[in-house]
């Protein structure tokens, strides 16, 4: 049974984090995944940790920005220790900074691995979290993600399954290809065409178009540890949280 969690970015538009944590605890979550804006220094990390524990939750994983890791590695390690993190993933690179060929993506993978090295050396699992742009193909059919992981040969992957689909690829093929490098998966759903326009076309897990049962089987054949519910823009985070954990629990208790 993987560790079931909730990406707090999904609740960024719904008031103070303390309110979200209380809601998630009541919905049945035991774990949450943080993101960089929630902990910008050791003081805010300590305050967040206290709030998480007050609601009976844990934060085993988090996202940290590449720039912060490169500019303040010691602070990032200290915050990770305060929060009790087990894994950290770099989640994004802005469009104007993205490589334009496979060689560039390989070099970028090395850069990501180097930036995460202080956390890796501190005993944490470290890696990359994808969006759809890493699904772009180059010569020979290799994707940007393939090249990134080739360059960063020690990186693990937090595979966002719906973004793989949005990028025109089959998530099962990536789960199989990187089976021994999958550390976490993001579980989100894609709405039917023309639906949920005010939610950017995303849906609650189990209430969209993604066929979860074959993906569930493929996840269970990998080295995966964490299953994390996420919605990039819900109009009701409590509804999303409750419906999604119900689907995830149904899958993993089947």
Second rung of CATH, namely the architecture:
Alpha-Beta Barrel
CATH fold-level topology: TIM Barrel
> What characteristic shape results from the CA principal axes?
globular
Helix content: 40-55%
Strand order of the largest sheet: 1-10-7-6-5-4-3-2
Can you tell me the CATH class?
A: Alpha Beta
Mean pLDDT equals 97
Number of helices: 10
Distance between the termini: 11 Å
Domain Xylose isomerase-like TIM barrel: 23-239
Protein name: Xylose isomerase
GO molecular function: isomerase activity
Keywords: Isomerase
Note down, in words, how this protein is organized.
With 254 residues, this protein is α/β, with parallel strands linked by helices. The protein has a single domain (3-252), classed as TIM Barrel, CATH 3.20.20. The chain has ten helices and ten strands. It has helices at residues 17-27, 42-54, 66-71, 73-83, 102-121, 144-151, 161-166, 171-177, 212-219, 237-252; strands spanning 3-6, 31-34, 58-63, 87-90, 125-129, 156-160, 182-187, 189-190, 202-203, 226-229. An eight-stranded parallel β-sheet has the order 1-10-7-6-5-4-3-2. Helix 1 runs parallel beside helix 10 (237-252), helix 2 packs parallel to helix 4 (73-83) and helix 4 (73-83) packs across helix 5 (102-121). The protein is globular, with a radius of gyration of 17 Å. Keywords: Isomerase.
Brief overview:
The protein has 254 residues and is α/β, with parallel strands linked by helices.
Short descriptors:
single chain, 254 residues, alpha/beta, TIM Barrel, eight-stranded parallel beta sheet, two-stranded antiparallel ribbon, 10 helices, 10 strands, 17% strand, globular
């Amino acid at each position: 049974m993987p560790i079931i969690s909730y990406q707090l970015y999904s609740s960024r538009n719904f008031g103070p984090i303390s309110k979200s944590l209380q809601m998630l605890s009541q919905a049945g979550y035991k774990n949450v995944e943080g993101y960089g804006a929630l902990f910008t220094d050791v003081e805010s990390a300590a305050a967040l940790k206290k709030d998480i524990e007050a609601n009976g939750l844990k934060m085993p994983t988090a996202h940290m920005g590449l720039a912060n890791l490169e500019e303040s590695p010691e602070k990032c390690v200290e915050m990770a220790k305060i929060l009790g993190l087990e894994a950290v993933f770099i989640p994004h690179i802005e469009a104007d900074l993205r490589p334009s060929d496979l060689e560039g993506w390989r070099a970028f993978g090395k850069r990501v691995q180097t930036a995460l090295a202080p956390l890796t050396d501190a005993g944490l699992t470290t890696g990359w979290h994808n969006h759809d742009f890493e699904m772009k193909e180059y010569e020979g059919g290799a994707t940007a993600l393939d090249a990134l992981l080739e360059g960063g040969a020690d990186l693990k992957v937090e595979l966002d399954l719906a973004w793989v689909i949005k990028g025109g690829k089959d998530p099962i093929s990536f789960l199989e290809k990187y089976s021994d490098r999958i550390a976490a998966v993001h579980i989100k759903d894609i709405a039917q065409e023309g639906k949920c326009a005010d939610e950017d076309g995303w849906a609650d897990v189990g209430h969209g178009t993604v066929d979860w049962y074959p993906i569930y089987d493929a996840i269970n054949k990998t080295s995966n540890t964490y299953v994390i519910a996420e919605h990039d823009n819900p109009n009701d985070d409590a509804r999303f949280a409750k419906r999604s954990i119900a689907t995830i629990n149904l899958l993993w208790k089947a």
